[in-house]
Write a structure and sequence with these properties.
InterPro entries: DUF7565, ZNF511, Znf_C2H2_type. This protein is mainly alpha-helical and 107 residues long. Helix content is 39%, strand content 7%. Strand 1 and strand 2 form a beta hairpin.
Length: 107
Amino acid sequence: RVQEFPCSISRCGKIFDSLLSYESHYNTQHRNCCSVCKRVFPSNYLLELHLLEWHDSMFEIQAAKQNMYKCLVESCPTLLQTSKTRKKHMIEKHHFPSNYRFDRVKK
């Protein structure tokens, strides 16, 4: 009999035949998941930036007064004025490709 590994997230319901496939599923579908919009991020740092920039009602007010957009590279301390200046910084300083999906457009 093959051992089963059910997903521990209550509403997911998926079952895996190996621990490796379960861990892969969990890491890509549930870890660093936004509790508001359910978008998944590759790191906790990027999730925290997302929560601040997309779901914190005070962020836009504060960003109008001071540089609030953190660099997407966790080890870089740079704060930028807008998401557009951050994109330029990411391309020029960190050599990200210009077609990298930096931000979704706010609706």
